[in-house]
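Would you mind writing out the residues of a protein together with its fold in token form for me to study?
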Amino acid sequence: MRFEVPQFINIPDKLFGPFTFKQALYLVGGGGMIFVIYRTLPQFAAIILGLPIAAFSLALVFYKPNGREFMHMVESFILYSFTNKFYLWRQRDIEPGAQEVTQIHGAFPEEGALPEDKRQKISDLAWSLDILDFDN
């Protein structure tokens, strides 16, 4: 007995033409809000308030930064804005007269900081990278 296994279960179904249910809901909700504003306010105020609503609802449907839905970005912004943040600062006591020295490893080394054999290896590597053809 053969069973058919669904293939594309992570792709939402297109219910209203080229739009999914959520996309259609965003468009209808934005259009409804603009309609209510247009019917209750003067035309100039309705245009001023309706343009950002239209832009936001169109962004929810069509704009996908980094391949993710814009709604995920809006949801992350709201969660970050309204959740508690915990900042902790600890003061370190430094002995009087002592200086704190910070070393940065891997930063530009001073002249003579590398042994001669490492310098030779680096120059050989640079030379081999210059002559190799990576297009093939």
Notes: The longest helix spans residues 21-40. The radius of gyration is 30 Å.
